[in-house]
Design goal:
Length: 111
Amino acid sequence: MLGLPEEELHASVEAMGSAYPELGAHWEEEWANNLLQAAMERLKREVDPKHYQIFFLRDIKGWKGRRVATWLGVSITSVYTVRHRIRKLLKKIVVELESSPETAIRFHEKE
């Protein structure tokens, strides 16, 4: 990438983060945002579109469960069951992406 061995590159990045704490915090925030975005895109591809819509309206948009149920024509029980399953899957995806940053990088390169 920059002609440096990976260990030296990581050490350089860590040193910059230490010298400029606000820069390190910014990088951490950007990494977290990109990780969540990649996880959400993968989630969207892996689940039933209606299930994603339930999760999106309830957890991302903040709609009440009853409103989601009425809007989508499903039971309130379905809203909370789907929401629980989707959240569990999203956490799993985030863990997978965190443990394999190359996967996240490849994902963003395809966009």
